Hints:
Elements: E1 2-8, E2 12-18, H1 27-42, E3 48-53, H2 64-69, H3 74-92, E4 97-101, E5 104-106, H4 108-114, E6 118-122, E7 126-128, H5 140-143, H6 149-158, E8 161-163, H7 164-168, E9 175-177, H8 182-194, H9 198-210, H10 216-232, H11 235-248
InterPro entries: ClpP/crotonase-like_dom_sf, Enoyl-CoA_hydra/iso
Keywords: Lipid metabolism, Lyase
GO biological process, one term: fatty acid beta-oxidation
Amino acid sequence: MGITTNLLDGTIAVVTMNFPPVNALPVQGWYDVAEAVRAAAETHHARVVVLRAEGRGFNAGVDIKQMQRTAGFDALIGANRGCHAAFKAVYECPVPVIAAVHGFCLGGGVGLVGNSDTVVASDDAYFGVPEVDRGALGAATHLARLVPQHLMRTLYFTSRTIRAADLVQHGSVLEVVPRGKLDDAALTVAREIAAKDPRVIRAAKEALNGIDPVDVNRSYRFEQGFTFELNLAGVADEHRDEFVDNARKPRA
Length: 252
């Protein structure tokens, strides 16, 4: 359980998230993702990183239950800073990051995927940012990297989800494959990149980030400021308490 890293072919770092039951990451988990992605390029000298997950889905966002059982705002601040650190590490990783997504990818999961360089997904994968239902804001920065502006706004305001298969037409998901073939699909792309001159690939990653029209780090922090306002107003606590209460109710 937690974050693990495996080095394949001496060139591909596979970073796996595993936080049962739904990969809702606790505060430390976000920092661990950030550290694993940084270490993949800096310590393991990988030429490419594959970010994947075990379990029912890729990522369910932050651990709201941890937030609600922690007194004060420490967990809230920790989750916000941890998410920022993880998203930043993926975006600023010196080598390409491939996200291999299965099942649900929600909230903070969209932050990780939106900042990745390439996305492959299984045929059961879907994406969404349910933040407004939790009394929070965030990850619109990253959802906007997956879908056009007006669709992003509709998905954001409604908390609707969108299938990976529908993202292929927008060009944000490279391909959709059966669940059992997801890892192979991600590794196929990873090996293609790893075969290139790593000096050129690292230069290319830095160059592409340099011409990006949106500063994803500042944009996301701007969004988070409104989350803090909603918390100070007591709005966010109401919605998170409702989420936790509903999660405790037995399923029919």
